[in-house]
Design brief:
The protein is α+β, with helices and mostly antiparallel strands. It is built from 4 helices and 6 strands. It has a 6-stranded antiparallel beta sheet. It is globular, with a radius of gyration of 17 Å.
Amino acid sequence: MDEQTWRRLVTDIAQSSPFWSHLGITIEHIDNGYARLVMAQSEQLSNAGGVIHGGALSSLADSATAIAVLSLCDPQERVTTIEMKINFLTPAAPGKCICEARVVRKGTTTAVCDVEIFDAQGAMVCKALITYAVIHPQTRELIAKARQAPTS
């Protein structure tokens, strides 16, 4: 599969996510080891204080990381979050939030990303470091077999 087809497939899969749709997340740009996603703020994403909920921002950071890591993976590889550390720096101004994720290093089994979220005014509202597991087809097969094995 060529790179353009792979990127289109990743975009189509991600943007068909009901969770992404609920959060209003869209992909603005993908490059090798980089993703920029946008999330429109809405009343449904607000916390009791009237600002965007940290969980929504964390989900945006996690989603951008997944796309950035997938941009460096083979089509048969899958990824999943294994660790996330996020600092909330200031409440986001009304409008959209822009998230940029950059892969710091992708190894054979893990990838680490540096993530920043900015509000519509350009202020950095979050800074995160997220680690993903890279799951190869052989690993998925081993996990599936282990789940089917009888227990004693």
